[in-house]
Structures are given as C-alpha cells and as structure tokens.
Amino acid sequence: MVDRKDLEEVLKIAMRKGGDFADIFIERRKTTSIGLEADKIERVNSGLEAGAGLRVISGDHTAYAYTNDLSREGLEQLAKVVSKAARGQARDLTIDFRQPKPNWDIEIEKMPDKVDIEDKVELVKTANEAARAVDTRVKQVTVGYGDVYQRVTIANTEGVFVEDERVRTRLAINAVAAQGDIIQTGYEAAGGYRGFELFREISAEDLASSAAKRAVLMLQAKPAPAGKMPVVMAGEAGGTMIHEACGHGLEADLVQKKLSVYANRKGEKVASEQVTVVDDASLPGKYGSLRYDDEGTPGQRTVLIENGILKEYMYDKLTARKEKRDSTGNGRRESYQDRPIPRMTNTFIAPGKMDPEDIIRETKKGLLVKKMGGGQVNTTNGDFVFDVAEGYLIEEGEITVPVRGATLTGNGPRVLQIVDMVGKDLGFAIGTCGKDGQGVPVSDAQPTIRIPELIVGGILDD
C-alpha cells in the first residue's frame, strides 16, 4: 500500500499547525454485484475504488478530507488542506508505529474475486429457479448477489499502524406471491465475513425456497388481531428490534449529544434481569465482524447491558477521547470518503436457559413473530413501530394459524424491562445499517423471548 515512513511524514504535516490527534485511512476496494429480476440478469457490476481519508482532531473540532491520489505528493497535499483547520500549537512528533494484535482471525478459503463471474451468475439463476418452483402463485422473484474485497491501511499519531484485508459475501432473495387481490412477500438473506465457501454451508436453493414459501404462506394468513397481547419473538426473527430499539441508543455519539434515552444511565437497571445485550465484532465469520475497526482498534466483545444493568456504550476514538477512555472498537465508516462514527457490529441479546418450545407452551394467547419486517425508531425516547413479515397466533400454548398485516408498536426501554422469558437459542440476521448517510454491514440476533404485553396491529388507547 503506502510506506510507513511516508505515512509518518503525512501525519506530521497534518499536525504541523496544531491538533490533538490525526489519523489516515487508505482503502482499495473491489466489488461485484449481480441482480436478477423477471427471470433475467438485469445487471452485473464490478468495480475498483481507491482513496484515502485524513482527519485531524483539535479539542471538540474535527477536520476531514479525502482524495483519490494515493501518491506521497497527493497525500501530503491532503494533509496540508486538513492542517489549515487544526487549532493549537504545532508539535514536533515522533511516531513509533506498531500493529495491535487482532482478537480473531479467519482464513478465506475461496476468495470471491477468484471465482468466475459465470459461477456467480449461475448461483443467482439457481436461487431464482428454486423460488419459482415453490408454487405457481409466486409471481415475482428478485435475487441480489454481492461480494467485496477490501484492503486497508490505517495509521495515527498514537502509533497505531494496521494493514488489513476484509472479505464479505452475501445473497438476498425477495419473492412476491399473489392470489386474487392479496399480495404478499417473503425475504431471506445470508452473508458473512466469508468468501465463496459461504455457499457450501448455506444452500442458495434452500434460502430461495424459504423466501417463496413465506410469501405463499402469508396468502392464506388471517388478518392480524389488534390489541395489547403477549408477543413471543422467535430466535429466527433476528435481532431487528434489539438493533433498532436499543442498539442505536447505546452508541456513544448519540449518548453524548443527549439524543439517547440511555444517556447518563450507566449502572442503572434498564432491562429485565434476564436480558444481557452484547456487541461483538470478534465473532469469526459474521457479517458485522471486524478484525480491526476503521480506526485500527481491534474488534472486540462489549457487554452493553448485563442482567438488566447498563454497563457500557459503544465508542469510537473521538467519543472516547471526550471521556478520556479507550475506544470499544466501534469506529466504522462506509468508505474512505466518510469520517468514522460509533456503529454497531454484531449486536444481540445473549441466550438464556429456557427451551423455546416451553416459552410457547407457557403463553396461553398471543402472537408469535417468526420474521421481522422494516420499522422505525426514535432513539431519543425509544418508541418504535415494526412490521411483522411472518406471524402466527398462539392459542392455549400452541401455534395455530398464520396472520398477516401485523405491526408491533411500543417503547424499546420498556420492552426490555418487561421481557420475562429468554430462550437458549440464538438466530442471526444480516443487513446494512444506515446512520448519518453511511451504510455499513451488520448482523443482529436474539434468542426466543417473550414480551408479556405489546400493542399489536396499531396504536390503541388505554
């Protein structure tokens, strides 16, 4: 990539007019994406991108700029631009670079960029055929494949020097089924910090069939009942609720700006004693995993809530500096064009001890959520509204008929306070998390949990 000595000189130039901290992020990225619609491959895109972003922090102020010119001259010019925004007195820096040891490692068995594009196209076609073979009522199928190979170099004035390679691969299928005036959808996605060997472990056909079967199943579903009732969220539903209704509120920038309901509440009971919430970038192979975050901090496991007690927030270097503490390895950015901000990685409710079947049996009447849809959350107060993509009635402790059109409305902190059963399973889902105009890969998860009272189907007056 770029010589260490050159990076040292660039950082010195960035700090020559003052500043407390400077870092540089250099990226080379190779991507492939394939899209299929209406039985046709609509796009096959591949691209190469390279650039560097340079940041100087002076007190509470941050200056950030980026360039596509990775020559020493180009980086020095970038440093001169950023240095103009620095404040304070110039310092004579001596930087002793070192690379911190990551908390996990993985060997990619089959690099996606070494796989023929024809093989990737065939994978997409196979998924399409599998979805359409489920039922004649499946009217539309879209399949999206993507992979990314990223090489980064990160260096800062504290002496951190990191060179890292990152590989992610994913496949997503959306199926639409129709019968009369009723139209329903089913969605499935799989991915990880993995190479093309992902598809030896995850069958594209099974993934596509699952999406199509969900769409067809929902055609026969009854309209969801409305009212307050117990809700059991299956592990396979993924952790959308914990990610949206809780996770963002535990990111340190929102906390420090008082835009989180969890601000200034460390040490307080914020959830049921059965609830432990973890963000863990060190899980090998997961979609949100990182050997190093985008500031060169090793990805790590952070217990955010332990047995109901708020223990920690997720920090990047900037928010950590404000509290004179270490980063938790949650500094992430979409690309070299973006400054790092605190972001989740793999966020989940830790498994409990109950058998998921026992949770169903002990629920006389309620709603079982097997798959979550989209939703909205207000991080300031924790209020949320989520769609249910696949749900069933629970009657007399048994799963009975499927229901469609259900929504879940509530308040994240209150929901966590009243969770009364936590299963021993754990189901992951993947996605791209958006914040401040940046999207980064994440995964979230939860075991089967029971919420004794939640508004289903809409907002009702007490």
From TrEMBL:
Domain Metalloprotease TldD/E C-terminal: 227-458
Cellular component terms per the entry's GO annotation: cytosol
Record domain Metalloprotease TldD/E central: where: 112-219
Protease is among the record's keywords: yes
Keyword terms of this UniProt record: Hydrolase, Metalloprotease, Protease
Domain of life: Bacteria
GO MF entry, a single one: metallopeptidase activity
Protein name from the UniProt record: Microcin-processing peptidase 2
Organism: Calderihabitans maritimus
